[in-house]
Please model this.
Amino acid sequence: MPTRVHVTTRINGEDYEFLCEPRQSLSEVLRETLGLTGTKEGCLDGNCGACTLILDGRIVDSCLVLGVEAQGREITTIEGLAGPQELHPLQQAFLENAALQCGICTPGFIMSAKGLLEKEPHPTEERIRWWLAGNLCRCTGYDKIIRAVMDAAQKI
Amino acid sequence: MANKVLVQKAFKVIGTRPIRHDGTDKVTGRAIYGGDVRFPGMLHGKVLRSPYAHARIRSIDTSAAEAMPGVRAVVTSRDLAQGEDKIEDLGEGAVNLKYLVDNILASDKALYKGHAIAAVAAIDPHTAEEALRLIKVDFEELPAVVNVREAMKDGAPILLEKLRTSAMGKMGDKPTNIATHLQFVKGDVEKGFKEADIIVEREFETATVHQGYIEPQNATAMWNTDGQLTVWCSTQGAFVVRDQLAKVLAHPLFKIKVVPTEIGGGFGGKIPVYLEPLAALLSRKTGKPVKLIMGRADVFEGTGPTPASFMRVKVGVTTAGKIVAVQGEVDFEAGAYPGSAVGPGIMCMFAPYDVENGKLDGYDVVVNKPKSTAYRAPGAPQAAFAAETVMDELAEKLGVDPIEFRLKNAAKEGTRRVDGPVFPVVGYVECLEAAQESDHWKTPLTGANRGRGVATGFWFNVGLQSSCNITVNQDGTVNLIEGSTDIGGTRTSLAMQAAEVLGLSAEDVKPSVVDTDSVGYNNVTGGSRTTFASGWAAYEAAQDVLRQMRERAALIWEANPDDVTYENGSFSVKGDSKNQLTFRELSAKLNQTGGPISASASVDPKGAGGAFAVHIVDLEVDPETGKVKILRYTAVQDAGKAIHPSYVEGQMQGGAVQGIGWALNEEYFMTARGAMANSTFLDYRMPTSLDLPMIDTIIVEVANPGHPFGVRGVGEVPIVPPQAAVANAIYRATGMRMTRLPMTPGAILHAKGVI
Amino acid sequence: MKNFDYKAPTSLGEAIGLLREKGERARVMAGGTDLIVQLRAGRFDLDLVVDSKRIPELSQLSFDATRGLTIGAAVPCHRIYEDEVVAAHYPGLIDSATIIGGVQIQSRASIGGNLCNASPSGDSIPSLIAYQTTALITGPNGNREVPVEQFCTAPGRTVLQQGEMLVSLRLPAPKPHSGAFYLRFIPRYEMDIAIVGVGASVVLSDDLGTITEARVSLGAVAPTPLYVAEAGASVAGRPATEATIALAAQIAKDAARPISDMRGTIEQRKHLASVLTTRALRGAIARAKGEHVNAH
Model:
């Protein structure tokens, strides 16, 4: 029976290497092995989006990506958004629009929204709601999240 | 229209919208939630749960699991001190200790599918999970009952052999599933109904529903060799966790430190302990830190959903539109152990109305489901679904506008509720009027298959104990230390209240939520109490800071402290325009004039203000599929004084959306054997962003005289009206009165006779 | 979940060799959005996961006016709906690809995987059937082709034998005046499993007044997605009107043999089979006429 696989990958613009068992998800590896706990886990079956990150330019549920699949790929997590002393416009917009209450879903929403605004810089409210439907929030009722994304779209 | 605040009194800081102090950490992923905690040498735990809804546990053999490579310890109920059969005051309300212990690890019986049987600690979570498969439990499956009416019948399977019905001070003498019968009576309902010209009587049912917080329960414990036990967990109440652990583990309270991490949602569901004692026991056995996190199915099956219910409501009115009698019989599923929120439910049921004659009966009934716990205004949403649907029907029969009907019968200051208390100043009328004046209400709804519904609700809000420390820094800023875990921005609302008193900006107050060793007792973040009661503590501490600062200024100026005033950010002596010091200037002088200044306050304020809400919803029903589309939603609520309006709006919007989910699609779907079939977010259907429009809000401010700034709790009442508002709108869109929750597409088609 | 080995072969031959050797103890993984969930839920244990995303034939997406559209089995949904050619010629497939899960799932989940997962309610399968798709399979005994409506044999089971894997799906080139449409009924607006799904395609006469051919397929009303040949046959040669559509809808309703479960009752599903077949045919006809319509 195999033990661990050696993986080299790029996360937030930096080279990483780690060992992981094939059964470990990417979210588990990020959180447990690499200490990047900004990516959250809410359901482990792709239904809540709390683990959303960007993999080779596309948003994915990292609980449904194997850690070994990170080999040779380019990953962006919530930890990779802000500059040394300034927040990404989405992060700033979430704060200014009070788009978080408990904040557990926030990293996932910001990563999903980033994926959207990179493809469509000026989405309509309907389009934003469709794109974000894979991210669950139980605190806000989504209103202020949608407004934050629309606000960020103006500023990016 | 979006959001409106009907400001009654303006302040400098209160009522503004600063960026929350913990915001940067939360949007960058730096904030540490319970699942993010990690320590060197940490072990990982998993829990074995009963596959049966009701079973005798004949034996548990953990030897194979203990022998598995990588496994370090296994615990069962043998490792827990058996709880005494007595009531303890833990958190919001009383808890029977024996039941609490039994819920943490089942002893002689498994009482629901998901009931914890054993816990394993291993070197990694996968190994722990595999070890669960090696634990051999000899179950004798028993007949289960998972419906409240079935559980109340003679001959129903009995869950707790020693349970007897407690009814109005008397104990029953035969085995039963009915734990309690409560009753409230006002006036004479029989006489009242005789006076009624129109009576509506209906029966209602609601299904089991879960709070649905996105972050699963978690706990990490380190039981040190000196007996110091430290627990890190996402909880609504670190002190309440400490209390529960002391009792459950029979360990001295002062040797336990609970460190509340950031918390990913609670809504009442993260008040009882589930994993904390297991983590502690496993840490004691292994000498290592042990972390447990629930999987999503465990959260649904092993924590505390809100009760399913059966209700019968009868209301009588005169043709003049006056309610003359109200009657409610409410049966709540407590889950496996007694203690549902049937009491608060019936107390709130008719609270918005001034009625002379009322009779309320509540039954707390055990069933083979997880032990229920609070879910945002516990009991009130179920009760309001029934009562507000009947009120809507009566208004229609009277030919009266539903808001006008409520205005005619509205509870006000001086109205006595059926359950006894008399309302102080309350803002129900103001909310109804604001709803009438709203753009939503004034805009006619046009189009086929569409309907508009309105409903109202009440929640008491509580006070309870809070503590707060404030220290003054040399640069004129202050640190505010408090113990209320922050689920929705409360550390900022406390900072704003302190800032208002101190004449500082919100940014100059740095709030921290600390552990149980570092601040005085704080009751839970729940009951809509934090901004109110912890706010009181912050207010008192800030006042004490000012008092000390005035004394210090008096010292510097050789004046009488009583003559020193503080206005517009400056200290000065009455009648003396020469000597002035700003807060900042004075702060710089503290160390040279007697030392640093700090103040603390511990409070238990009694004047919590009840809150009323009025919700309006427009929706469309597809007549061929029964699917509902929410078109427009407005939530009106009396906040007393909105400290940070954005976060008050957030509570209103979030509660409304939870209510919409509860109304339309959320339920525990039970199999014939008493198991939850849909314990994933795929089939437990909470609203997504695509299911909703914007949620407009109108904040009414009728100040609560029991708080220095007029605050009323805001977190809970928003979940009370949505279910009935949606039902009333569906009625107008389809002609069908829905009396069962959830009102799924299939249920609507069935009500219409299409299927 | 129990530990397993992971291999990412770069050729079909290598992949087949691995599958043949491990039999039931190995499975192919494309997007992983079904497989990982099932492994985590303990539905089965595996010794080996064969990642198919590096095999060139499984990642192809190509269109040819004669041969039609070829979709590699591992091509994720997002590539399908971002492709202008696919959007222009196979909008019914886009209907499916945009509703399997949410965007995060669509970044990974493949139509091929959706088919091989063989859920009775798989959202891509009725539209593949409506498009008269052929599944291209390879294995130790060579290549074979199977019409998609025969591919699923029971919930979670397919015609794939030990060592075989799905390589690609081929959709014929669209005929003039043809259109297809897929829609499903779910209680929310996203993220649900279909209670009922219907894929329909039509070919209209040159004057757009008559249906010359039609195919109707139902999802979530039987152990496997159904190809209801009689529904299509009943409308062939008839005018493209509501009355004709109603005929097909009734046949579809009669052909549906659903169960009652936590997602829907038999009565609800049969009723919806009729309603959705009506709406799917209306949509297919509109598209065949060159109109631009949205499924959701």
